[in-house]
Design goal:
The complex is a heterodimer. By secondary structure, chain A is an all-alpha fold. Helices cover 74% and strands 0% of the residues of chain A. Chain A has helices spanning 25-60, 62-70, 74-100, 103-134, 152-186, 196-220. By secondary structure, chain B is an all-alpha fold. In chain B, 65% of the residues lie in helices and 0% in strands. Chain B has helices at residues 19-22, 33-37, 42-70, 81-116, 125-147, 161-164, 170-196, 209-241, 254-288, 295-308, 324-352, 361-383, 386-392, 396-426, 432-458, 473-503, 547-551. In chain B, helix 3 (42-70) runs antiparallel to helix 16, helix 4 (81-116) packs parallel to helix 7 (170-196) and helix 9 packs across helix 14. The N and C termini of chain B lie far apart (53 Å). The relative contact order of chain B is 0.12. Classes of the chains: A mainly alpha, B mainly alpha. Chain A binds chain B through residues 1, 19-23, 27, 30-31, 34-35, 38-39, 41-43, 45-50, 52-53, 56-57, 60-61, 138-141, 150-151, 153-154, 157-158, 160-161, 165, and chain B through 40, 119-126, 184, 187-189, 191-192, 195-197, 222-223, 225-227, 229-231, 234, 237-238, 241-245, 247, 250-253, 256, 259-260, 528. The complex binds protoporphyrin IX containing FE and copper (II) ion. Protoporphyrin IX containing FE (HEM) binds at residues 156, 269, 272-273, 315-316, 334-335, 337-338, 341, 377, 380-381, 383-384, 389, 392-393, 398, 401-402, 405-406 of chain B. Copper (II) ion binds at residues 266, 269, 312, 315-316 of chain B.
């Protein structure tokens, strides 16, 4: 359905593709960005539901909430926060380089982002692993002897639902960014008026980061 | 080559005849199966949605009839109690998630929105196709679950029952979750389309009212669906693994589930009914041959309903133990919805007033619609009053209320839209006589089905009961009789519309002489919607009378 508009006619610079139903490239990019913003809003609302569950049960079980939160590994959580924030920075740099048409740098920045994402997941894996060993698990699977109070299993229900959903978003974000990286390497066609793909991928990554910035204090610091 | 001279008709045939061959209608532009299944043309996608939506309507309708037959006698009639529970659940789920929610936006929104905005397509055509397949995937998963084990929770999935029942909850809930994605994608697509693809000349306040309604609906879809998406996933997880999120035995709070559920599902009722309002605004102007009365008020009240719709969910929980203060508050907020709806009703009536009414089938449905909306809305106001809702809650009164407003109004609009836009979509006319007969049957049948339910509910018959005392039987029989009439009406429609598809006479560009923008192009439209130069829109969309002339005061 798409036809490229060859602007000046020569195969000199890669020309961004304009779909036939848009009036101009500007409108097309505007539409893509608006669509992404709306999508991100829905993502935030998705997590908002969990935040509401969190808030309600914290209100119902304040002591159990505090005690359960203490069992989380604050160091690992903090390291992960730093890792994720740094990865957001590299994702933003990727957009910067894409605008300048430095496709190699784009690929490098995305690769760094992906590396940190993997690091995040590895740390998360260790945290999960620990919980499976000591038994701080959701609902009926809970068997942690040192903390037996009503509400504690519920904390871990919320913990696992929220972090698992966030983890899923990390993985989706990695897939999206990988596409942008491959494109930068293979086609090297990002440039001043063709960087929407990197921009959208990076926006998604900032969302992943943002959600974690809410989750971290809620779960680890209460 | 002479450019088309008439600025107001962008679809004007090009000067040279040979151009015709280059612009076949979207229906015949590619005839292979693949050209349909992989199309990114919003019109073809709309038609495919129409096919599926009608199919699911048939499924839901058959189950509705089974429910009505079962309730013919006080005791068991044709099925056992468990089957009955599964039947009404399946009916509700299919009707709400597979028919009512996508019906108007996904079919007529898809088809008409770009035409009304003078756009060649929606903003994201491929996402649009994707949303069709997401919808089908979710529908198949949910149906598979319902047929393999079935679900007996009712369409509201109330916890803790839904997390403990041994029927197949997980696939159905997950299917509904997937369908939600389709709804979100469609919503985002329409919002972005409205923002970025309006043709030059179509300002916000020159958009057809149907576009306003779809826009407001899309806002609700985008804002509310994620919350129920999360909720469905949580309940699925809980049903499979007993995480205890909403299970009182593990400290969870089932009322929290209800809050989150109705936070979506109350606005969801406006997802179903706002597009219906939009259709009716178009129809009433076209068949009264009058500019819509209070265009801005109609447009803004769509947004108003979308907004206050988010703050009324608590009226489903008057008996859940919430405090009297909260109950009262939600009661008042509920009334606000009534205010915005009333604005629309007044404007429609004001449009008809002193209009030159052309009583065609869509207008007949408008009349039915007006009755159902007003009557259903009034019972809603009554239900929004806490002291009245307490005895009526979970009785057939509520069932009748929401069928009147939600099903009645939406079905009327769906049928009005189907008849009004049939010539545009297929280029052919249906038989007006048969259409009026079936419209009369349907409106009559609908009343005969649900008015007895108001009465039986007011007498105290609870909803979702398999057996009932003798004294309720007469009204139940009346309701079943009405349902048969209703079903018969639909059979007639199916017959003459199928006939019209093949043998109907050619409609021509604008058989209603309507002033809607979508009528400016050919019927059926060519693949890219318009032939010739970029359309321009010097007039307002419902421009039957020059509003300035109409405002000239009478000479003294
Ligand atoms: C405009 C379209 C409307 C639709 C589509 C609609 C739909 C529904 C539905 C589906 C239910 C029942 C849900 C269930 O329990 O299964 C319901 C209940 C209710 N509706 Fe409406 N409604 C509409 C308008 C209104 C209005 C205008 C009001 C009040 C001003 C209202 C007040 C209520 C109340 C209070 C209940 C709860 C009754 C109870 O459960 O005891 N509704 N409505
Ligand atoms: Cu409601």
């Amino acid at each position: 359905m798409q036809s490229s508009v060859s602007a000046a006619g020569g195969p000199v610079a890669p020309v961004p593709r304009l779909a036939m139903h848009f009036a101009s490239l500007e409108v097309q990019n505007h539409a893509a960005r608006l669509g992404m913003w709306l999508f991100l809003a829905t993502e935030i609302l998705l997590f908002a539901g969990l935040f509401i569950c969190y808030g309600c049960y914290r209100f119902l079980f304040p002591e159990a909430w505090a005690a359960s939160s203490d069992t989380l590994d604050l160091t690992m959580g903090t390291v992960n926060t730093v890792v994720l924030i740094t990865s957001s920075l590299t994702a933003a740099l990727a957009v910067h380089y894409a605008k300048e048409g430095q496709n190699k740098m784009v690929a490098i920045q995305i690769a760094l982002t992906l590396a940190m994402a993997v690091g995040f997941l590895v740390i998360k894996y260790f945290e999960y692993h620990h919980k499976f060993e000591v038994g701080t698990l959701p609902g009926r699977y809970y068997f942690y002897d040192k903390l037996q109070m009503p509400g504690a299993p519920l904390f871990f229900t919320v913990y696992f639902c929220a972090t698992a959903l966030h983890g899923l978003h990390v993985i989706i974000g990695m897939i999206v960014l990988t596409f942008a990286m491959v494109r930068a390497l293979r086609k090297a066609d990002f440039g001043p008026n063709n960087y929407t793909m990197v921009e959208l991928g990076s926006m998604y990554w900032h969302l992943v980061d943002l959600v974690w910035i809410f989750l971290f204090p809620m779960l680890y610091l209460v | 080559m002479t450019p088309s001279s008439s600025i107001a008709s962008p679809g004007a045939a090009p000067a040279h005849d040979e151009h015709h061959d280059h612009h076949p209608s979207y229906l015949v532009d590619g005839t292979t199966i693949k050209s349909w299944l992989l199309t990114v043309d919003h019109k073809r996608i709309g038609l495919m949605f129409l096919f599926w939506v009608l199919l699911f309507f048939l499924v839901g309708g058959i189950f509705a009839l089974l429910i009505r037959v079962e309730l013919l006698t006080p005791g068991p009639t044709i099925m056992d109690a468990m089957t009955y529970n599964r039947t009404f659940t399946l009916h509700g789920l299919v009707m709400i998630f597979l028919f009512m929610i996508p019906a108007i936006p996904a079919v007529f929104g898809n088809f008409m929105l770009p035409l009304m905005l003078g756009a060649k397509d929606v903003a994201f055509p491929r996402l649009n196709l994707l949303s069709l397949y997401i919808y089908l995937g979710g529908a198949m998963l949910a149906l598979w679950g319902m047929l393999n084990g079935g679900l007996d929770t009712g369409w509201t999935f109330y916890t803790p029952y839904s997390t403990h029942t041994t029927t197949t909850v997980a696939p159905v809930l997950f299917g509904a979750f997937i369908i939600g994605f389709s709804s979100i994608v469609t919503g985002i697509n329409f919002i972005v389309t409205t923002h970025t693809m309006r043709a030059p000349g179509i300002t916000w306040f020159k958009m057809p009212l149907f576009v306003w309604a779809i826009y407001a609906t899309s806002c609700i879809q985008v804002l509310a669906t994620p919350v129920i998406g999360l909720l469905l996933v949580l309940v699925t997880v809980e049903n499979l693994f007993s995480f205890g999120m909403f299970d009182p035995a593990r400290g969870g709070d089932p009322v929290l589930f209800q809050h989150l559920f109705w936070f979506y599902s109350h606005p969801a009722v406006y997802i179903m009914v706002l597009p219906a309002f939009g259709v009716m605004s178009e129809v009433v102007a076209a068949f009264s041959r009058k500019n819509i009365f209070g265009y801005r008020a109609v447009a803004y009240s769509s947004l108003g309903i979308a907004f206050v719709g988010f703050f009324a969910w608590g009226h489903h929980m008057f008996v859940s133990g919430q405090s009297t203060f909260v109950g009262g508050l939600f009661g008042v907020l509920t009334m606000l919805v009534g205010v915005f709806t009333a604005i629309k009703v007044f404007n429609w009536v004001g449009t008809v007033y002193k209009g030159a009414v052309d009583f065609k089938t869509p207008f007949a449905y408008f009349c039915g619609f007006l009755f159902f909306t007003v009557f259903g809305g009034m019972t809603g106001i009554a239900l929004g009053t806490v002291s009245l809702d307490v005895p009526w809650h979970d009785t057939y009164f509520v069932v009748a209320h929401f069928h009147f407003i939600m099903v009645g109004a939406t079905i009327m609009a769906f049928l009005a839209a189907l008849h009004y836009w049939f010539p545009k979509m297929f280029g052919r006319m249906y038989h007006e006589g048969w259409a009026l007969v079936s419209a009369a049957l349907i409106i009559l049948g609908f009343n005969a089905t649900f008015i007895p339910q108001f009465l039986v509910g007011n007498n105290g018959m609870p909803r979702r009961y398999y057996e009932y005392p003798e004294r309720f039987q007469a009204l139940n029989v009346a309701s079943t009789a009405g349902a048969s009439l209703l079903a018969f009406g639909f059979v007639i429609i199916a017959c003459y519309l199928t006939y019209a598809l093949v043998y109907g006479r050619a409609a021509g560009k604008n058989p209603w002489r309507s002033k809607g923008y979508e009528w400016l192009t050919e019927s059926p439209p060519p693949t890219h919607n318009f032939v010739g130069p970029q359309p321009t829109y010097p007039e307002e969309p419902h421009f039957y009378v020059d509003p300035k002339k109409a405002e000239v005061p009478d000479a003294v």
